[in-house]
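Predict both folds.
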Amino acid sequence: MLENSPVELVENERAVLASLIESEGERPSLEALEALHQEDPQLNTLVQLVSRLRTTGVTPRYLELARELLAQMPTSEFAIEIVGFLVAHGHDEDAAEILSSVSELVERSDALLAHTAWLH
């Protein structure tokens, strides 16, 4: 089906789409997202990758990409999700580091202020 597509796709995009079709709409594999992110680091792929990495727990790769996501798209929503995940898994030091890197968001978010107060 994808082989005859008139749209040009990067090989890794083709792999992600193929995995979606094969799995009947389930999320693409972590490996497919990693490959796509390496080939063409789009924000959408990064968001999906960070979300997917949460299923593996707090890993160095999760921390790296969560920081990258907040650097590219510093929103309260992303910060709350990331910090909440880290705190829930006992990574208070990493959560505090993330909060200090997005201090301008903390000033405007009650949830981030609460996390900051809890961690200090």
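Second protein follows, with its predicted structure tokens after the sequence.
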Amino acid sequence: MGLIELARAHESWGQLDKAVAAAMDAVACGEASQARAELSEALTTLGRLYVQDVRLDEAEPILERALASARGLPEADPRRESLIGPATVELARLALTRRSSARALDLISGLTLPEPGVGAPVPYRAEAVRVKIESLAALSRFGEALPLAKAELIWHEARLPAGHPSLVRTRCVLASVLLAEGRAKEAAPFAETAADSALAALGPTHQATLDATELAATAWQAMGDLDRSDAVVARVLARLTDQDATHLAAILQLRRTQIAVSCDAGRFTEADDLFEETQRAVAALEPLGPSIRARVDRLLDACEVLRESRRPK
């Protein structure tokens, strides 16, 4: 297994710190060999992982470098477009994460994206379309986002098994558009189906499982069904153990969701108890490695900010 494939494998297992380490090794190998294509792919992988880990300031120069490296290939090189596409998509994802939706949409609009099933497969197409849909929704262009999201889901459902990560993410995108438009009652079943299928097929630490679970909990919360919101998160937490450092980041991400739900319901004592329980779980696993330590600290800080910002003054 190559270093990039190893990074992707660790990412799929929820081991983000190991994924980052493997991607950094791949970048070093690409630099040492002066292999422009391999370097671009490694940089794109590392940049994507940094975006996922909310290390946005670190991600941007890496992704810009990945794109520049890909563009530096001869135009006749068949790898050129296949490397420009993923780097552009990840830069658009970064822009969307920073709430620069117009910038994200501009980046995606510069790519040639065929209709699904038309012509040769474009590996990054599905992710590019998802970013486009989310960007349109963030700009309140629901009349464009919703038909596109529905069409993508129909196409994916006809071809992929229920727990496939691409289908899970496509279902979540439709749910997020509906939720953004204030249609939580329609969004919640899509999000919960995505969460349940991801948990069964991908496991509790996969990022697609965690993202779908957060979305489902948020949708049920928006409907005022806090018990259903809690239950969605509890199903995943039941598969995780706070005795395992590899599970810790996943637990913290879900605790953040639980704290948000509790605060929004005015259950601040419950939110405090959840935060203190989380702190105890982290302390019990000390010392942590430097990479997971940094991620845990970011998630703990997010939980603390969330808890304090929603408390009545």
